[in-house]
Structures are given as structure tokens and as C-alpha cells.
Amino acid sequence: MTTASDPSYPAHWEADVVLRDGGTARIRPITTEDAGRLVSFYEQVSDESKYYRFFAPYPRLSARDVHRFTHHDYVDRVGLAATVGEEFIGTVRYDRIGPDGRPASAPADEAEVAFLVQDAHQGRGVASALLEHIGAVARERGIRRFAAEVLPANNKMIKVFKDAGYEQKRSFEDGSVHLTLDLEPTAESLAVQRAREQRAEARSVQRLLTPRSVAVIGVSRSGGGVGAAALRNLRDSGFRGHLYAVNEAATTDLLDGVRAYRTLAAVDAPVDLAVIAVPAERVPEAVAACGEHGVQGLVVLSAGYGESGAAGLDRQRELVRQVRSYGMRLIGPNAYGVINTAPEVGLNASLTPAPAPIRGRIGLFTQSGAIGISLLSALLRRGEGLSSFVSAGNRADVSGNDILQYWYEDEATDVALMYLETLGNPRKFTRLARRTAAVKPVVVARGGRHTPAGHVVPGTRLPDATVSALLRQAGVIRVGTVTELVDVGLLLASQPLPAGPRVAILGNSESLGVLTYDACLAQGLRPGAPRDLTTAATPEDFRTALRAALGSAENDAVIVTVIPWVNEQDPQDDLADALRDAVAAYPGKPVAVVHVELAELVDALSPAGPGTAPAAPTTGPLRARPRPTDEDEGGYAGPDVRIPAYPAAERAVRAVAEAVRYGQWRRANADAGQVPEYEDIDEAGAAARLAALLAGVGDGVLTLSEPDAAALLAHYGIRVLPTLPAPTADAAVRAARSMGYPVALKTTAPHLRHRADLGGVRLDLATEADLRRSYEELTDLLGTPDELLPVVQAMVPRGVDTVVRSVIDPAAGAVLSFGLAGVASELLGDTAHRLVPATDRDAAGLIRSIRTAPLLFGWRGSDPVDTAALEELLLRLSRLVDDHPEVVGVTLEPVVVATEGLSVLSAAVRVAHPPARTDLGPRTLPSY
């Protein structure tokens, strides 16, 4: 008998998933304790669904059936259930079979699979989620194919198999459709899985941001406190749906003018979203009431969770478990709230007082309430609006990844701004950010390098600079401060992307123009000579100059500098009109304004006022605003033409430079490249070798011996030049004779390994005498042979010494790194990184992105080395670590790249049992 407390119970198969409609379910192994649940589940399934499952009328399960469906060995027979609360809503099982179709054990690698989903939950994607998870379980247990018998009329189940993306065969036998699915993941199956993940997670956020009814639980009768504030903000910001107040001590029908109830159960209507603002110890009761009422999502403002210490962290974990058990999603706890400015919604379920931010094209996500307040205030001061705002607090459930899924397809959001204190799962984040950045900018400010209290996510061992490089690779615009976050967001939300780095500068201050020019050079831009209009310049002079700069084919962007006028007139409004008119006439290039103490100009260049929707999107697929007609040119452009203004040249230039770099990334990544296939890769052989190496190994990391490392790498076409041990001078001579002169003599002691600067390497030893003399010198200088562990290796063609590495970070996943060998590169940190799996474009960019890359391409008349061979090595290593999560670290050092070919002189490989769940496995919510 196996129960959930049995040591043999595979707890790592448990997972929370988001279903197609945005609700959640829990998938877990079926145990002997589930007999009652299984019977209850089966009773709620329609006769038609039962017929499709058993190919005959089957009104009830027999005792023998119940025993068979709840007793599993979790190897040859496995059953999984999708649950909401304690109830089953779907089941799947497989039974391993042999070639004759009868029950079998390993090494048989085929299993028969069957599903049953409760009718009320069909169409929610339950069967698709179960297929993903049972497929992953089967692969873990050595099963490579599923077989299924389906009645021809069971179109829904046939579609589940057809749409999974696996390679499959189909035949019609004895009145049923026989399906065979190859469980090896394919590009198509992975694409299908991620598309389903995106739709489900986006829908779950959409349900939170577009409720038709909201209940605030914990509204005080006195009008004070967080709950009352949230209720007022919802009411005063014009929420379009139904609003309810819940207070167990309510004695009137109204609280703050809103219908009041003593309990949520007393509300005789559906509630889509609940805002919970009660003390932490009372939150479980409120969550249970929401779950029983059918609430879809929660915003928990209550504090006292992970941010308060170990006890609060336990309380937070239990909160997530409870929320998900009802199929709900959670923003918080310790959240600041959510805002959706869509006119048909008008949601301000936050602590931001009314009026809510104006409608705009920026989506804003923060983990910190305080930073959320700061960002909202900064955007409001500069006249910018929002499409949506989420401040997730401890983000125990809904995270930045979920919000990116939503913004990716949200037509109301053109720019994504994110303040993150931790990335949580950087591998998934960069995957989602890369996809989103291909259609709209993603700007990120990180608040710290370490995991703050309350954010229960895997930490990363990667240096912050490496994380930044990986974010840049994914197209993320990484900024250092929240001020820069607003600055860059304003430009991207209102201006088209620049076509290149050429910047025109014009204004009425020569000094401010020179400062702007210097700032452009510091940011890697190509500024033209500043055009000084003099302090006597009129708005018409600005209009004429700006039109000329925008109309010139020599410029990609324009920065206008303005200082106050010295006469009594102050034509700031006229100047704003003149600048907007010029921009309207030439809308294809971005314009930014640098001003000195001209607050009225900033206001005049912003939207007309609260409630005004800014101009249409400008930063989609490298598109610009529509060009006005001839009669429009030169006329009043109106307030919808917005121009961002900055109080310092450096801030404006930084924003323009980020837009330039992002535009360059968009153009360069129009073709993301391919992950090449190599016919000589032996994936199955590598898997078998890893299984043998890890047999009997516990939870630790195993460092392979040099022969084992070389044998593993050989499965992927990576040849490591062999070495022979030389414990004595005579042994060294014998080794050299077997290899042929010339040879190298090297120490392999850990403290001397790869340290040629310490004298532990002797090269080009052409004779026995040279070898014996070098052996004596090494042992006299550095220590005994037992201490040095010397080896002999054949000489290879001279070239550039490089280092290739891959490391598995607990949060970021596999990262591929490259640099030149030597102390100088280590000291300067001249190493480049790419996420795995790397494409051919990634490999080419990787070797060209280090500062010492010119040494590979013929620096100062030297011969260029074989970079094509180097790129192939990087791609083969990327494939190895991507195909086999057991490989947790590889170092190839040195890799000598010659004019033709390369040689890997040494390899270190570390392996371990793979984690139970990775970003490459079946879709699942984070487990906290």
C-alpha cells in the first residue's frame, strides 16, 4: 500500500497548474487513500464519458476497479489526478506493456494510457495538462511511447493527442482509433506546451484585472484602515462592476456608500475578485469563504507573512496552498494592489487614492509597494498614464512572469516597466522577456542582488553583471534606478524607435548643447555638432530647426535643449506647440527635450490632463505614427503628440541611447537563429553513460574522472586530447614515446592547474633529454611528483588559448560562457555569457562580445583563428547540457584555437541527479 506519507510516494510529481480558463488545479499521484474520492468523481461523470472511457456502458466502478485504480507501483503502473480542493476533476493512468500488449516491466518502453475528465471541467485543458505530466513521469520511468485506444466519436480526446505536438502514428483497428505517441520532446511539442502556458497564465491575470464584481473583506465601520481605503479607491475611481463591502460587525446596509454584508456568503451574486484586508491570523478564514463562494482571484493586502520572519514564511506557504486548493490565484500577500485603467473596467483595487492614474500605454509591475508609490507619482507628475499596474508584494503566487504573459498579448500595453527585487526563475523570465521584447519594450530595474525577506524563490549564484548580460541577450532594457525606469519608459511610450545612433542636437544654449553632445559620446551614440539657435530664438525658430533636423536623412533622433528666456515674455506654451507641430510633420524619428527649470513646458508637452488617453502605440514592430496629410503639416498638432522632457542632459541621452540599443536588438533578432543538429551526436549513449555514472550516487555532485569526462563529451563530438600520467621521469619518457615527440609536460595538482604563469607547464619538448631535464626542473622547483601529479600530452598547433564553460545556476538554468585563458582575462572579468540552448547566432555573438575578441580575428597582423570551429564547439556543449540536466558543470580549459581547427586540452565535468522540475519539464506553477 502506498499513501502520501509513504517513503516510496513520488512527491516530486505533485504540481500546481494553470488551466486554460485561468483557474488552477493540483496534479498529484493517486494513492490508496483516494478510493472514496475516485468513486465520488466517477459518479459525477456522464454516461457518455464513461462509455468513451470503457467502450461500453459502465455505470459504476466495482471494488476490483477501485483497487486497481488506486494501487500503483509508480513505475509500471501510475495514476495521476487533477484536483480542486479535495475533489478529483480528472484522472490519467498508464500501464507498461510489452510488444504483445500485455502487462510488462522494464526494459519494456511502451505504456497504454487512458484519461477521464469530469464533464463539468471538460474544455478547461485538464486532459492536456495531465498528458504533459504523465508524459514526463513516463520518460522518468524509461517509457518512450504511449499507446491509446479511442472511439472514433470521442473527438475531444483524439484532439488532445493530436494537438500535443508529439510524433504520432494513427490507425483504425477493430472499430477504434489506435494512437501511438513518441514521448521524446520535439520542437513542436515544446512550442505547444509553451503556447498553452502563455494562454493559461495570461488568462489568469486577465481574470484578476477585469473583474465584473469585487468584494473588499475587512472594511472597518469607522472608515479607517487599509480595507476602507481600498474600498474608497475602488468606489471613487469609477469601477464599472458591482462592489461589495464585507465586515462581520456591519450593522447597516451601506459602508461608505457601498452595499455591506456581514459575510461573503451573504452576497447573493457572483464575486470575481476579493480584496482581503484583515489581520494575517484571520486570512485563512477569509480565503476559505472566498473559495466556497467561487471567487476567481485574491488581492491580499494583509502583512505579517514572509517579510516578518520564519513564522510568517510558514504562514505564507500555507496561504498559497490554501488559495490554490480552491483553484484561485493570489496577488500578495503584503501587496499594494492592482489597477486597470481600461474604460470598460476602471479598476483601482489598490491603496492609491482616487483619482486613479490616467489611461496610458505603459504597464507597470513592482514587488515593492513603496517603489510602486514612487513610480506612480513620477509618471503622474510627468503626465504619463498606465494601462495596468500590479504591485505584488511578496509575490507568493502571481509573479512578474505571469504579468509578462499577460502583457505579451495585451493590446492596451505598449511598454512594460518592471521593478524587480529578485528574478525568481531567471530562465523562464528571460524566455518570456525575449518573446515579449520582440514586439514591445521590456524595461527592468532590479532593486538588489540578494533575496529579500518574504520572496521565497531560488537564489542565484551568478554575479549581477552576468545576470545583466543575460537580460540584455533577451532584449531586456536593464536600468539602474527607478528614475531611469521612468525616463526610458516615457520615451518608449511616446516616441518611435530610432533607426540608428545618429543624434541631432539643437537648442538655445550652447553650453547645454555641449553637455548633451558629451553625454551622447559617453553612451556610444554618434551626435552631430550642436546647433545653437542663441538665447534670442523664438518658438518659430525651434519649429524650423526641428523640422529640418527631423527631415534630414543624416539623423536618427533629435534632442532639443531649452533654457529660460531672459525677456519678460515666457512662450513655453507656444514652444510646446511649435515642437509638437514639427514632430507631427515628421513622425518617424524620436525627439526628447532637455530643459532647465521649465516646469510649464513639461506640462505643455504632456497629455492634456487626467483621463486623456495618450497617442496610439508607437513602439510595436518598429512602427512609427502615421504620417499626417499635407493639410495637417504645419498646423496645430494637438496634445496627443507627446514629447518627453528631462531636467538633465544625461537623463535624456540615456533614454535615447537605450531606445537605440533596443532598436538594434530588435533588428538583429528578427532572425533568432537555429539550434543546429549534428548527426554524430549520440544522445542515447550519453544518457546511458550518465545513468551508469550516477547509479548509487546520492544527492551530491560527482566530479568525473578525466577518462569519464572525455568519454561523455565524446558522445557529443567533443574530443579531449588524452594525457598519460608521469609519476616518474621514466614513466614520462615511456608516455612520450607512445605519443611521439614533441610533447608537453604539465602538472595537474589543483593549486597549479591552468597556471602556466607559475611554471607548471613545459612545452615543445622534442627529445628525451629535454623531457628529463624539464621533469627534474619541475620537481626541484614546485614539489614532489606525488604533489604535482605530472602528465604528458602531445603538442598541438599553436593558437589562441580560450576557456569554454557551462554552469547550471539553481535559478537561471544552464549558462554558456566564453573568454580567453589567462590571468589578465580573469582579472578584468572579460567573459561573455549566453543562455542555453544557444543558437548559431548566439554562438557567433558570444565569441565576438568579449573585449579581447580582436585577438581571434588577426590582431596586429596575426593570423585569424578558426572561429567557425570554436562556434561549433560552443554549440555542441550547449546541446549536451541542454539535453542532459544531469550535467551541472563543464569547463574546457584550455581550448587552443588554431588557424585550422582547435584542441581541447583538458575537461572537467560535474554531474548530479537532475532537479525534479525544470523550465523544460511540464508546465507548473512555482512551489513555495
Describe what this molecule looks like in 3D.
The chain is an alpha/beta fold. The protein is built from 27 helices and 39 strands. The chain has an eight-stranded mixed β-sheet, sandwiched between helices. Strand 5 (110-117), helix 4 and strand 6 form a beta-alpha-beta unit. Helix 15 (510-522) runs parallel beside helix 19. The longest helix has 23 residues, at 187-209. The two termini are 29 Å apart.
Q: Which bin fits the share of residues in helices?
A: 25-40%
Gyration radius from CA atoms, angstroms = 32 Å
Q: How would the global form be characterised?
A: flat
Number of helices: 27
Strand content: 15-25%
Q: Which residue ranges are poorly predicted, with pLDDT under 50 across at least 5 consecutive positions? A: 608-638
With strands numbered from the N-terminus, the spatial order across the biggest sheet is: 1-2-3-4-5-6-8-7
| Overall pLDDT | 89
> Structural class, judged by helices and strands?
alpha/beta
